[in-house]
Amino acid sequence: NLLKKKSSPFIESIFSSSQYYFLSFLIIIVINQFLKLDFLTERLLYFTIFAIFFGFLTFYKNRDRVEKEIEDEKNNEERGEKKRKEEFDSKFPRIAKIWGLRSIVKWMYKEGWWYSGGVIGIFILFITIKIIMFLVFKGSFNDEYYHIFSGIDLFNKGHFAEIYFGEHYSRGFYISFLVGLFFKLFGQSLLVAKIVPATIGLVNFFLIYFISKKILIRKRTIILFLLTYALFFTTTFNHFYIRMYVIYELFMLLLIFWFLFINSLKMKGNLFTFKLNIFLLIVLNILFRFFIGGAESNIINVLTFFFFFFKSNHHFFKLLKNKKYLFIIIVGFVPLF
Q1: Which residues contact 204 (CB under 8 A, 6 or more apart)?
Q2: Most buried among 101, 193, 210, 314, using CB within 10 Å?
C-alpha cells in the first residue's frame, strides 16, 4: 500500500488531494445540469469518470475511520434497540396485553419513534401514489391488453389469447395468470387488472425495506433510500403497468434478499457449503431463465454470478482449479447467457 508506506510522494499527494478533486468534478457536473454548457456537456463522461475515480480514492483513504465510525454506530444502535425491546413490557403494560397492537407499537419503540414513523409515513405515501394513479389514469396501454385477454382466455378456454396469427401469447405468462386469477376472484375490470402489479409492488416495497436494513447501517440513510424508491418514476410506472417488469423487479429483489440471507449464515471458510450454494445458484438461475426468458434474465444471471464472485472469490478460484466443478459451472452458466 503506497499510501501507508509513503514510498511515493506523488501517490501520497494524489490521495491527500483526492477529496478536493472529487468535490470539484462533482460541482462541475451539478452546475452543468443547470447551465447546459456545450463545453462541459461534451466532456461530461470524462468528468463523471474522474469524479468516480477520485471519490473512490477519497473513500479508500478514509476507509478505516469510516468503517470504525459505522461499526461503532451500528453497535450502539443494536444495544439501544435491544434495551428498548426488553423494557417495552414494563413501560407499556396496557399495550403489551393487546394482541396485534402490541407487535406494532413494540416494533416502533424498538426501532425509535422518528425512524418507525418515517417508515410508516413513506409506506402511506407509497400507497397514496398508487391510489392517485388509479384515480387519474383510468386508461391503459395497448400491450397491457395482451395480458388481460390472455388471463381471461386462460381461465375460460384453458389457453392464452391468440394475439398474432393464431399464436398464443405466452410472454410474461405469470402476469396473465395472475390477471386471470384476480378476474376470477374479484370480477373483470381494468381496476382489478391494475391491482395485480400494485400488489406485487407492495411485496417489493417490503423486500426493499428488509434489504436496506441488511445493507445500510444509518437509519437516516434507510429513510432516504425508501423515500427515493417510493418517489422514483420507474417504481410508480412499473407498479401501475400490467406487464412483466414488476416481476423482474421482484425476482431481482428476491435474489438479493436470498444472498443476504446466505451471507448472514456466516459460511465463510466452509468449502462444502459454498459448493452447495453454487449448485443452488445454478438451479435458481435456470428457474429465472424459465420464468423470465429473453435479454432481461441475463441481467439477473450476471448479477448473481458477480455477487458470488466478489463475495467468495477465494473459494471461487479454488473451485476453478478443480476440473469437475469448473465443468459444472460452465454447463450451468454458459447456456444462460
Answers
A1: 239, 246, 249, 250, 253
A2: 193
Residues 238, 193: contact at Cβ < 8 Å? no
Q: Rounded to a whole number, what is the distance in angstroms from the first to the last CA of the chain? A: 37
Alpha-carbon span 35 to 255, nearest angstrom? 41
Is 285 in contact with 301 (CB distance < 8 Å)?
Answer: yes
Tell me the per-residue pLDDT of 128-148, one tens digit each, with 9 for 90 and over: 999 998 888 877 778 888 888
For 52-108, what is each residue's pLDDT tens digit? 777 777 766 666 665 566 666 777 777 877 888 888 888 888 887 888 888 888 888
3-state secondary structure of 162: strand
Contact 169, 163 (CB under 8 A): yes
pLDDT band of residue 335 (cuts 50, 70, 90) is very low
Distance CA 2, CA 22 (A): 20
Residue 69 pLDDT: 65
- Element (H or E) spanning 210, and its range? helix 190-215
Neighbours of 230 (CB within 10 A): 20
Which residue, chain included where needed, has cell 413494540?
106
**What distance in Å separates the CA atoms of residue 69 and residue 321, rounded to the nearest whole number?**
39
The neighbour count for residue 29, using CB atoms within 10 Å, is 15
Q: Using one digit for the tens of pLDDT, what is the confidence trace for 293-307?
A: 555 556 566 666 656
CA separation (Å) from 117 to 20, 113, 124, 143?
Answer: 37, 6, 10, 39
Sign of CA dihedral 118, 123, 129, 132: negative
How far is it, in rounded angstroms, from Cα 197 to Cα 109?
Answer: 32
Render 21-84 in DSSP notation, one character per residue.
HHHHHHHHHHHHHHH--HHHHTTHHHHHHHHHHHHHHHHHHTHHHHHHHHHHHHHHHHHHHHHH
If one counts every other C-beta atom within 10 angstroms of the C-beta of residue 189, the result is: 11
pTM, 2 dp: 0.67
In Å, what is the CA distance from 209 to each residue of 79, 237, 238, 258, 310? Answer: 21, 19, 18, 14, 24
